[in-house]
Amino acid sequence: MALLSPCFWPEVRRGMERFTRELADGLLAHGQRPQLITSHPGRPSRTLEDRLPIVRVPRPPQGPLLRRGYEPYLTHVPLAYAVLRAGRYDIAHAMHTTDAAAAMRWKRRTGRPALLSFMGIPDRAGLRYARKRLGLMRRAVSECDAVVALSEYAAEAFRTSLGYEAPVIAPGVDLHAFQSAGPRAEQPTIVCSAAAEEPRKHVALLVEALGLVRADVPDARLVLSRPRDFEAVRRIGVDAEADGVEWHDLDDRAVLARVYGEAWVSVLASDSEAFGLVLAEAMACGTPVVAYDDAALPELVDRPGIGRLFDRLEPRALADAILETLELSRDEATADRCRARAQEFSTDRFVERYLELYRTIGAGR
């Protein structure tokens, strides 16, 4: 099968890229032969990276289209389609709406199945956020053999906005990469691996809440993911030099797993999350979590023994949830409850669901 993603490691190491890598690794472990078709701002290349064949097509400049409000990652799509046409694939599996356009055209030419795993929430605001997104999504639910939602919340948005019954397959967690490798840090440690430069992640709110936490726990520290551009972080109001704040390279999966294992609490304060993979990865390391009571996050943090939800985007509400979860982390049973919850999202289960879907849409044709 061809996996299509607009960008990949090392250029970007966020949720969609980790989703793609987990799926590819799981397919390889099941004896399948996936190949990734992606793009980058460079020359075309073909590499083999940890057993995964990767074709990188050039990504022409996007600036003019982005300034006019178009959907990101449109410029590489003709080149991705050319790679699809030149290959001998049984299935085209896109991870982004623009790549789904290439997969759908390939399906029309070859008659073979195409599907899209949609990484967001297709509600009214999300579908109209960028030009062409609504049209692409309408085509996808009409022409793809399946469009997959990451959560029940996202599936309900498909029903409401597009009249489409999307199958739900939650992302997978690599339980071998994310596991507790040592003792917790002696100093109460809070970690947030979200991209600080994205306003909806509300990292500025988290830094403000840290000040309130430190009023009760003076030695508490907050570990954040080091951005490429600190000026972009400061422009959205994040106090990058606040007391207790540390910046680490959390894009490195080994570093991220180590920090999760050392942390007492992992926080995701963002809104409009379609799943919340970073919380599942933290729980796999035995770390309880704090999340905003919004979108799909309550599906993940669905019981008090693994963390807390906060219901208002206010420093006091977030600080109180963190303080409660710091106390929860002292309970020896908490780590086992968190790991048990994460096991429900293992890569094996995730990949088996996709293999079942591949077989279903293949047999349906």
Q: Secondary-structure map with pairings?
A:
Blueprint: E1 2-4, H1 15-29, E2 35-40, E3 45-49, E4 52-58, H2 63-67, H3 77-86, E5 92-94, H4 97-110, E6 114-117, H5 124-127, H6 133-143, E7 146-148, H7 152-162, E8 189-192, H8 203-216, E9 221-225, H9 230-235, E10 245-248, H10 253-262, E11 265-268, H11 277-284, E12 289-292, H12 297-300, E13 307-310, H13 315-328, H14 332-343, H15 347-364
Parallel strand pairs: 1-2, 1-5, 2-4, 5-6, 6-7, 8-9, 8-11, 9-10, 11-12, 12-13
Antiparallel strand pairs: 3-4
Description:
It is a single chain. This protein has 15 helices and 13 strands. The chain is an alpha/beta fold and 365 residues long. The strands form two sheets. It has a seven-stranded mixed β-sheet with strand order 3-4-2-1-5-6-7. Strands 10-9-8-11-12-13 form a six-stranded parallel β-sheet, sandwiched between helices. The longest helix has 18 residues, at 347-364. The model has no long low-confidence stretch (mean pLDDT 95).
